[in-house]
Design a protein that fits this description.
Layout: E1 3-5, E2 17-20, E3 23-25, H1 26-33, H2 37-46, E4 56-58, H3 59-68, E5 72-75, H4 78-83, H5 88-96, E6 99-100, E7 104-109, H6 115-128, E8 141-146, E9 149-154, H7 159-167, E10 175-181, H8 188-200, E11 204-209, H9 218-226, E12 241-243, H10 252-266, E13 269-270, E14 277-286, E15 290-299, E16 302-303, E17 307-310, E18 313-321, E19 327-328, E20 330-331, E21 335-342, E22 351-355, H11 358-369, H12 374-379, H13 384-389, E23 397-405, H14 408-419, E24 422-423, E25 426-435, H15 440-448, E26 452-456, H16 462-471, E27 475-478, H17 481-492, E28 500-515, E29 521-533, E30 537-542, E31 545-557, E32 560-561, E33 564-566, E34 570-575, E35 586-594
Parallel strand pairs: 2-5, 7-9, 7-10, 10-11, 11-12, 23-25, 23-26, 26-27
Antiparallel strand pairs: 1-28, 3-4, 6-13, 8-9, 14-15, 14-22, 15-21, 16-20, 17-18, 17-22, 18-19, 18-21, 24-25, 28-29, 28-35, 29-33, 29-34, 30-31, 30-35, 31-32, 31-34
Helix pairs in contact: 1-2, 7-8, 7-15, 8-15, 15-16
Bound molecules: guanosine-5'-diphosphate (GDP).
Residues 109, 111-117, 157, 209-210, 212-213, 245-247 line the site of guanosine-5'-diphosphate.
């Protein structure tokens, strides 16, 4: 007989992640980390930063302290940081210098619906006009002007790149343009793109493309959008949709104007008076110039001559050029630039920040290059029970899920059952639900949004499995809908069994003790439940308390060495390195197993 029960062992060590605002005072950092402010200041000094108690430091500097204390951190998204009114000291300082910044736009949509063509068309219609004959170079992003406002376009279209950056802790995009081919309508990756943009909380502008095609049917696209709770303006909703043709250029300037309007509504702000921070968009090794990186400044102003760190790379900015290849001396928020000066190649998606001096830059980079560093911790997602258990009591929290099932029918059935659950002020939020196996796109979305993937009667693509392991995304597989619902319900009640369960294989009671000449003792036992096997791990328990954990090195039935002893049999057991058992103690044979549900 095999009994399964909840583990009495301490759970796998699951470190909590401390969410820090983008800037905070030293004092606040010491409160949040529960450390003496003096220790925090000392730690900063060790990294070459002289900071007083009420001095404002940025997130990157804060991680120097937290990683020294072994605390994993993640940066709050801008709005969360604002909501954190406890960090008012820094918030107020920032409020003063806030100005409108350039919005950053990413193009998403199904393959072949014209994302690249649209990016090209936008660049041609708006950039080339000003740069007659000028060669625009591809640095991973470019800017155009619409309604007298600059717009930055990221040149890597698609929701995977979009969520990969988010998964690394940065929100690079302010507005998503969803491209839908008018002759094809909404396709699976359109749905994925919608889910990714919604999960990121990014406003969507729909570009109904290929309007030059005879089969173009924009009404069908609008209807399909409405079926996904996305009502466009002429269907009485608020989502802006624009009919375009990337091929002829028709409608493209209209699209840009509308993006500019959405940007205005979004009221994007930044403080150009701060040292710069942002995200690396692209990086490569240029044979002549050394490592080059395109970065997007998100806050502050980046200037030539300053020290920057990004992931495990650092350097001093030697030269910067804009998307046209023109040299620039400073780069403002919302603006991309290619920079020279990194000593090694940073990774796309890494956050960068300006630091006061070379020593800090070097230390931060070395710290992050260490695999146990904070950057790694940032990419680690949460498990189902962690998500729920992290919720402070009384606060409404969403349990983010990505749902995959074999066919659309089961997707809908599972989705409905899950969406009806509410427990303990927790609501299920399904970020994406579709049929088919778990893909890399699902893992990126889950990682970027701290979601758990629920796979119902479907498997996981090997590449997605590897990515999930690397990013620490939990994928839970189910074959029976009730177990799935039960687990999610239990998780919502904070009662979910850990993914690793402890399985009791058998129990044996020690009846008599036989000493041997070598000082080793033999426990004369009777198996009362299940079985004892040679080599099995056992806990020695007395009155229900665990005294020791050991292994069965010898198992005898009378004089014969045997491999197992089943319920009701007598046996002699020798334990590896443990002889302090007494009559009446119980040996519990057990094994840790991945929960199969
Ligand atoms: P992506 O996979 O979304 O980046 O799609 P592409 O930009 O590569 O476009 C896929 C195909 O559709 C290409 O052959 C384009 O030339 C074509 N295409 C893109 N936009 C239009 C358009 O507005 N009209 C027409 N007729 N073809 C287009």
């Amino acid at each position: 007989m095999t009994t399964e029960r909840r583990s009495s062992q301490p759970r796998r060590r699951q470190s909590r992640v401390l969410i820090l605002p983008q800037t905070l005072t030293v004092q606040r950092l010491s409160e949040l980390t529960d450390q003496n402010p003096i220790d925090v200041i000392k730690q900063l000094m060790r990294n070459g930063i002289m900071a007083a108690m009420n001095q404002v430091i940025d997130y990157q500097m804060a991680t120097l302290v937290t990683s020294a204390f072994g605390i994993s951190t993640a940066m709050a998204e801008a709005d969360e940081a604002d909501a954190d009114n406890e960090s008012t000291a820094s918030a107020e300082v920032e409020q003063a210098g806030l100005v409108t910044r350039t919005p950053v736009v990413t193009i998403l949509g199904h393959v072949d619906h014209g994302k690249t063509a649209l990016l090209d068309s936008i660049r041609d219609t708006s950039v080339a006009e000003r740069e007659v004959g000028g060669i625009t170079q591809h640095i991973g992003a470019y800017q155009v002007e619409a309604n007298g406002q600059l717009l930055t376009f990221l040149d890597t279209p698609g929701h995977e790149a979009f969520s990969a950056i988010r998964a690394r802790g940065s929100k690079a995009t302010d507005i998503a343009v969803l491209v839908v081919a008018a002759d094809d309508g909404i396709m699976p990756q359109t749905d994925e793109a919608i889910s990714h943009a919604k999960a990121a909380g990014v406003p969507i502008v729909v570009a109904i493309n290929k309007m030059d095609m005879p089969a173009a049917d924009s009404e069908r696209v609008k209807r399909q959008l409405s079926e996904r709770n996305m009502l466009v303006e002429d269907w009485g909703g608020e989502i802006i949709s624009v009919e375009v043709s990337a091929r002829t250029g028709d409608g493209v300037s209209d699209l840009l104007e509308n993006i500019a309007v959405v940007a205005e509504i979004a009221e994007l702000k930044a403080n150009p008076d701060k040292p710069a921070s942002g995200v690396i968009i692209e990086a490569k090794l240029d044979r002549k110039r050394g490592p080059t990186a395109t970065l997007l400044v998100q806050d502050g102003t980046l200037a030539v001559g300053t020290y920057v760190t990004a992931g495990g790379a650092w350097g001093r900015v030697r030269a910067m050029s804009d998307y046209r290849g023109d040299a620039v001396k400073q780069v403002l928020p919302g603006t991309p630039a290619e920079i020279l000066g990194f000593g090694s190649i940073p990774e796309a998606g890494d956050l960068f920040s300006v630091v006061p001096n070379e020593r800090t830059a070097r230390n931060m980079a070395a710290d992050r290059a260490n695999p146990a560093s904070s950057q790694q911790a940032q990419t680690r997602a949460l498990t189902l029970d962690e998500v729920v258990n992290q919720t402070p009591a009384g606060e409404l929290k969403e349990l983010n899920l990505v749902l995959k099932a074999d066919v659309q029918g089961s997707v809908e059935a599972v989705r409905q059952s899950l969406e009806n659950l509410t427990e303990n002020n927790i609501k299920v939020r399904i970020l994406h639900a579709s049929s088919g196996g778990v893909t890399e796109s699902d893992v990126l979305l889950a990682s970027a949004s701290e979601a758990i993937i629920i796979a119902f009667t479907v498997g996981t693509e090997p590449s997605a499995e590897r990515l999930a392991n690397r990013m620490g995304v939990e994928i839970r597989h189910y074959d029976i809908i009730y177990q799935l619902i039960d687990d999610v319900e239990l998780a919502m009640q904070g009662l979910l069994e850990p993914a690793v369960v402890d399985v009791i294989l058998g129990r044996a009671e020690i009846r008599e003790i036989f000493p041997t000449r070598g000082g080793v003792k033999i426990a004369g036992c009777r198996v009362v439940e299940g079985r004892m096997t040679k080599g099995v791990t056992v806990r020695v328990t007395r009155d229900g308390k665990v005294l020791e954990e050991s292994t069965v090195t010898s198992l005898r039935h009378f004089r014969d060495e045997v491999n197992e002893a089943t319920t009701g049999t007598e046996c002699g057991i020798v334990l590896q390195g443990y002889n302090d058992f007494e009559q009446g103690d119980v040996l519990e044979a057990h094994r840790e197993e991945r929960a199969r549900r």
